[in-house]
Amino acid sequence: MTPHTTLISAEALQTLIASAEPLRIFDCTFDLMQPHLGHAQYLEAHIPGAVYADLDTALSARHGIPGAHGVLVASGADAPASGGRHPLPNRERFATWLSSVGFANNMQAVVYDRNGANYCGRLWWMLKWAGHRHVAVLDGGLQAWTASGGGTKAGEEPAHFQSNFELGTELVSLVSADTVQARLDQPSQTLIDARATARYKGDIEPLDPVAGHIPGALNRPFSQNLQADGKFKPPHELRQEFEALLNGRKPETVVHQCGSGVSALSNLLAMEIAGLGSTNLFAGSWSEWCSEPGRPVERG
Fold first, then answer.
1. Which CATH architecture has domain 173-289?
2. Among 35, 56, 236, 243, which one is least packed by beta carbons within 10 Å?
3. One of 28, 120, 258, 290 is an active-site residue; which one?
4. Is it the case that residue 70 has pLDDT exceeding 70?
5. Which residues neighbour 208 within 8 Å (Cβ) at sequence distance 6 or greater?
């Protein structure tokens, strides 16, 4: 069966499940303001067999101690791969978690949420980062699944047997705060900020200590990637919109960011759907950027 690497429809997922091909489904539902709500919603209803992937505990580094300006610091096996409010766990730590939930290298991964693809893109990207190509986002999320007649299950799933997931060559590019700062105002870097426009402009800031954006960053709220039904816009439409935003800048120069490196991945995925190639992620995003007082801030 042809592997899925960007999006998968609810109907195609039903066919994949029926085929008995090696598959693992992940529910990434989350709520930033109520961190325990996502798991509660998973327990209420999820795609049968889905593993819950918690943004705070599975998809972020929560080891080490807060350092200066709230930056997470650790060393050795616990050292995170980025800063910010949701620092990336290092690849080895992530592989350990994948193994603990029985995910193996021969499996197709399908990730979804019920939040407009706001959180599942994180796991989609992280699996690519771990060297796993065969991972797709369920287009339209749980809502599309139920609308297509897909059933749901309540409660916890039985534990899976431990696997031995092996890391491969990184298939995506991770950019550090220092690199972003060194390339400010250079044609080799085009920042795209996925936050809502009011946050980008600095009119409001509900989560981070400083309001505004990285100087020179363009703004494309991630919600603009979706249609009214919650599915991604067609590739040609996404391509037109991103090319208009870039205004002649090369797609390969793009570095995506948001508040903490999560919703930015909707833009990164959208550009890939649009045929604009694999672009770059600044995972620490605004929360890491503004934690260092010496870094410049722009408003408006």
1. 3-Layer(aba) Sandwich (3.40)
2. 236
3. 258
4. no
5. 85, 259, 286, 287, 290
Element (H, E) at 218: strand 218-219
Structure-block tokens of residue 11: 């109907």
SS3 string, 189-205, reads CEEEECCCHHHHHCCCC
Distance CA 85, CA 87 (A): 6
User: Where along the chain do its domains lie?
Assistant: 7-147, 173-289
**Which residue matches tokens 């992937």?**
53
Cβ-count burial 166-182 (b if 16+ within 10 Å, e if not): eeeeebbebbebeebee
CA-nearest of 291, 296, 269 to 281 is 269
Q: Over the stretch 229-283, which tens digit does the pLDDT of each residue have?
A: 999 999 999 999 999 999 999 999 999 999 999 999 999 999 999 999 999 999 9
Q: With 0-12 CB in 10 A as exposed, 13-18 as middle and 19+ as buried, what is 277?
A: exposed
**Is the alpha carbon torsion for 226, 232, 234, 236 positive or negative?**
positive
Q: What is the pLDDT of residue 67?
A: 37
* The listed CATH number (3.40.1190.20, 3.40.630.30, 3.40.250.10, 3.30.70.260) that belongs to domain 7-147: 3.40.250.10
Across-strand partners of 280? 173, 255
Verify whether residue 28 is a known catalytic residue. Answer: no
Full-model pTM: 0.94
| Helix, coil or strand: residue 134 | coil
